[in-house]
Amino acid sequence: MTIVQQSIESHAPATPAASDEELGLVAALRGGDERAFMMLIERYHGALFRLALIYAGSHAVAEEVVQETWLSVIQGIGRFEGRSSLKTWLFRILTNRAKTRGMREGRSVPFSALRDPADDSAEPSVEPERFDNVNGHWTSSPGDWSEVPEERLLSRETQACIQAAIGALPPNQRTVITMRDVEGWSAEEVCNVLGISESNQRVLLHRARSKVRRALDQYLREE
Amino acid sequence: MDTVELSCKELVELVTEYFEGTLPPAERARFEEHLAGCGYCRLYLEQMRQTIRMAGGLTEESAPAAARDGLLQAFREWKGTR
To answer: Which residues in chain B (29-58) have CB-CB distances under 8 A to chain A?
Structure first.
């Protein structure tokens, strides 16, 4: 039975340690188990790529960044202590690689902007003209999406609309909504990987979701 | 006791916190009280839920396959040096 030493550095935010399942996987990887490695790739490759794409200029660069990440994992697995979850460790490697890559290519890297929630001015979630000036109530219905035929909601075109709306977000908002809503991670996981506070994460998520909803709303109103 | 009602305009800014469960109890009560009496805000909340749900459906979009052979090779090389 592996004994995991919990990090007691008081200055570091507490991160959930690797789960038993993950520790088993790590042990298998350390033991040279190829199937375990393939399983790890299977599990996380898609998410790694989707996130790398936010910071890469192209699919090709995103693929390279992910490839480099996997190679770093191979090199580093012997040293992984399980103080953070395997997933957190993996995605931190990715964000570091993406940052390094961005710096090498002379692009300003948005990760540094992640710590500043006020990168755009406090834009309202909904256009102000939708509300009455005096009492702040909706002047008309926001729209009932339950009246939209299910096939339309699930269609490729609607998906493309959402994809495009997410793609148009500032990188930090795009990262948070991708991690939380596309990939389904918890707020804690996102904060651990990105090194941001929960409230910071929430502000980014709020702005991102508001913009995507608005794009969808406009799209669905069109006949 | 805070008896000032939440407006729709204010409510839409609190939706994310509401979903996250991070609204303080008093504010959450005001939020839910407003919702109970406002069909338009209920529609908005439902739109937000749908947006989140549909975003979750995007992972079906495939990422390019990992260059597995190269990675397997690298893994084997590392194995050999352990």
So the answer is: 38-41, 43-44, 46-48, 50-52, 54-58
DSSP state of A5: P
- A45-91 pLDDT per residue, tens: 999 999 998 888 788 899 999 999 999 999 999 888 888 889 999 99
Which structure tokens are listed for A60?
Answer: 């090709």
Helices (H), ranges, A82-186: 86-104, 150-154, 156-167, 171-177
Residues contacting A48, CB < 8 A, separation 6+: A66, A69, A90, A91, A94, B63
Q: What is the DSSP string of A192-218?
A: HHHT--HHHHHHHHHHHHHHHHHHHHH
Size of chain B, expressed as the number of residues it contains: 82
Read off the tokens for B18: 């509401």
- Which one-letter amino acid corresponds to residue A175? T
